[in-house]
Design goal:
The protein is α+β, with helices and mostly antiparallel strands. 26% of the residues lie in helices and 28% in strands. It contains 13 helices and 22 strands. The strands form seven sheets. Strands 9-10-20-13-22-11 form a six-stranded mixed sheet. A four-stranded antiparallel sheet has the order 12-21-14-19. A three-stranded antiparallel sheet has the order 1-2-3. A hairpin with a 4-residue loop joins β2 and β3 (33-37). α5 packs across α11, α8 packs across α9 (261-269) and α8 packs across α10 (334-349). It is elongated and about 80 Å long. The two termini are 23 Å apart. The structure holds fe (ii) ion. Fe (ii) ion binds at residues 204, 213, 215, 374.
Length: 433
């Protein structure tokens, strides 16, 4: 049997090494140079003494208290497989570390590619939303990964040809991971306008327009991914009632930052608090259930509308007109903060940024709820029938599945995949020629 060896791209192959007082310098076959401090290499060692292969975590042999702060190698070579091979000297004599070159490359301290965020494409109303086939996503990991990648790049996708039942809807979400536990007794909800109880307490069931918003803004950590499957759309008027709308919140943040940096500063530093209070609301576990369970919910959070990460980049938008509560802001900033909030609200309704489309039975709208705001056009005719299934995934569940799928593409072992950043995994998934 012949094994077809795939060739690594030059960026993942070592051209030469040089040792310095404090570390090892690697010149890669793509010309890039990386420097790894001896202490970093020793601290990151994955030999069986330092790192447990079964639990994939640091072993008790990795003793930070005994580790020299100025380790010195006795010999540094490239082994036959192209790995960096270090035999330590001094206090660490006998200690042997081997490092996978691809892993080293994605741990290079100063490779600008690693510092970039995952590829995101900002969009406006002209976006073409990617469509995926339900059965392909269910049966083929490549389709699953492509669709999850779209949720990073654009933050929105539609799955079509979904069977019209709750079990299939649940299976689609569980293809990624377990459903997010809601505060309600049910994790899958049915939005049917006929539901009078829901209509009384929930804007999305009511007549009129549902403004673009993110879900669960009054929680500590909002839901990561939202799924909405249309199971019924019957509109005898044949007009644009109850069309779905989506807006790229990251794009709006960029528009505001460009046109009014002070507004951007206010929306990233001042708080737009949110609250929700529902006590003893009854909810049936299923249509056929005779008894209903009660749930109680009393939420309050202070959040920024635009949330920045440690690099000052937008990572999360939180906006829901309906759950906003009185502003908590100093007297001198009230007007400016509300003006900034109003500008964001105005952009949310701007046809230039609002993508509008009809979700038909068998189609599932999937949005990244940390980025894309969703809503719908108005409903005014009592004869319109529309029903949706909805459920959520945690952001972490989504990220884990995508990281696993990216890891599988790398062809690397768990020993080296463990603990790589998302960006590193994206780069490694593409390491072959
Ligand atoms: Fe919603």
């Amino acid at each position: 049997m012949t094994t077809l060896l795939r060739q690594l791209k030059p960026a993942f192959r070592i051209e030469s090494i040089a040792t310095h007082d404090n570390g090892v310098e690697i010149t890669w076959k793509d010309g890039h140079q990386s420097f790894y401090h001896h202490l970093w290499l020793l601290d990151s060692c994955r030999c069986p003494k330092c790192f447990q292969r079964d639990t994939l975590s640091l072993n008790s042999g990795h003793d930070l208290l005994k580790m020299p702060l100025n380790p010195t190698p006795q010999e540094v070579t490239i082994d036959r497989e192209g790995n960096l091979d270090i035999v330590w000297g001094g206090q660490e004599t006998g200690h042997h570390s081997v490092f996978d070159p691809s892993w080293l490359r994605v741990h290079c301290y100063d490779d600008p590619a690693l510092k970039q965020k995952s590829k995101t494409q900002l969009w406006d109303a002209s976006v073409s939303i990617p469509y995926f086939d339900y059965h392909e996503v269910m049966n083929d990991d490549d389709f699953l990964l492509s669709y999850l990648n779209q949720l990073v790049e654009l933050g929105v996708a539609v799955i079509e040809n979904a069977p019209n039942d709750e079990q299939s809807f649940r299976a689609l979400i569980e293809r990624v991971g377990p459903l997010r536990q809601r505060y309600h007794p049910t994790n899958v909800f049915t939005m049917d306008r006929k539901n009078a109880v829901a209509q009384a307490i929930q804007h999305s069931y009511q007549l009129g327009r549902l403004r673009n918003h993110t879900d669960v803004t009054a929680y500590d950590i909002p839901t990561g991914i939202q799924f909405l499957q249309c199971t019924l759309y019957d509109n005898p008027d044949n007009d644009r009632q109850a069309y779905s709308t989506v807006v790229d919140g990251f794009k709006l943040a960029e528009v505001i930052k460009t046109e009014n940096p002070y507004f951007f500063e206010l929306l990233t530093t001042e708080y737009i608090p949110a609250g929700r209070r529902r006590l003893s609301v009854e909810e049936k576990l299923s249509e056929n259930d005779s008894s209903a369970r009660k749930y109680e919910w009393e939420a309050y959070r202070r959040n920024h509308l635009i949330n920045l990460d440690e690099n000052g980049e937008v990572y999360q938008i939180r906006y829901n007109h309906n759950t906003r509560i009185p502003l908590e802001v100093s007297y001198d900033k009230i007007q400016d903060l509300l003006a900034a909030y109003r500008r964001f609200s105005q952009l949310l309704q701007d046809p230039d940024y609002n993508a509008e489309f009809l979700l038909t039975p068998g189609q599932v709208l999937v949005v990244n709820n940390w980025r894309v705001l969703h809503g719908r056009t108005g409903i005014w005719s009592p004869s319109l029938k529309r029903s949706l299934l909805g459920a959520y995934l945690e952001e972490e569940t989504f990220r884990c599945r995508r990281r696993i799928l990216l890891g599988e593409k790398t062809g690397m072992s768990n020993l080296w995949l463990m603990g790589c950043s998302d960006r590193a995994l994206e780069i490694l998934a593409d390491r072959y020629v």
